[in-house]
Amino acid sequence: MNLEIERKYLVASLPPGLEQYPCVHIEQGYLNTDPVVRIRRADGTCTLTYKGKGLMIREEYNLPLSKQAFLHLREKIDGALIEKRRYRIPWQDRYTIELDIFEGELAPLQLAEVEFETEADAAAFLPPDWFGEDVTFSTAYHNSTLCQGQH
Which is it for strands 82-91 and 95-102: parallel, antiparallel or unpaired? Predict the structure, then answer.
């Protein structure tokens, strides 16, 4: 089990020099949204994830999936398949910003997430000025909600 502590923000404007950061293409779908059971393929690596309840802090379990299992389960997802490009941007020598640029039906949505080691770190975090509204405590911006077309 992994305890995930993260904050999530809308993006007011893209940061300069975005092309210099690592980027992966992600496909993900949800087999269930309560509890959250997600499948994901990111540049060929496939995983099955269970997420517990919560907003800023919640349990997360990840299990490896074969490509065949991912393709089989992708046919069974509830809602739309989410496709996005994820950029990993270092921030303040201690954080990594995951910037998601959604494609397809969810475009032009852009969200930034930052994971933390402690709740105190999350509470003290000062975002860069290209971040927009803090939506950490809004379930409307959980991917499991977005796949249902409710954004």
Answer: antiparallel
